[in-house]
Amino acid sequence: MSNAAFADGKFPVHHSSFIVDGMACELCESDGGELIWRDEQCRVVCVEEPGYPGFCRAIWNAHVAEMSDLNEGERARLMRVVFELEAGLRDLLRPDKINLASLGNAVPHLHWHVIPRFRGDPHFPSPIWSAPLRQPAAAQPDLAPFKKALAKRLSRL
Ligand SMILES: [Zn+2]
Fold it and tell me: How far is the CA of 56 from the centre of ligand 1 (A)?
C-alpha cells in the first residue's frame, strides 16, 4: 500500500474491517480460514491464497491487538504454536524459506502469518504483500494430507 492511497484522507482498503466503537471484527466473528486446530487460547487456520499452498495463520482467540497485551505465559504459548507451525511447514512442505509476520493494521486482532515461501512463488524474494513478480502456479497441490499431519503435530503441544 502506498502513502498516496491516504492522500484523499480516506482509508484505502479493508475499511469495513476496522474496529469502530466495538463494531464487527472478522477474526472474532469467524475462524478466519480453514480451521486446522484450536484450544482455549488460540487456533491455527489454513488460508486459501493462490500461489501460496500451506499459508497458515496462528490467531489468538480473544480480541487483543498486540503481543504486549498478553501476559508472559500467553505470549510463550502463542509463540510455541507459531514455532511448531513453522517447524511443521518446513518438515511437511520443504519450502525454501518461512516468512513470519504479525501486522494487523487492517484487522487489529492478534495473529501471526506463517508463510512457506518457494523460489517460484508469485512474489519471491519479496514480501507477499508487495507487487507480484509472476503468476501463481496453475496446479495447486493436494493439501489434505498436509493439513491432517499438521493438526496431529499441533494436538501434541
Ligand atoms: Zn477480534
Answer: 18
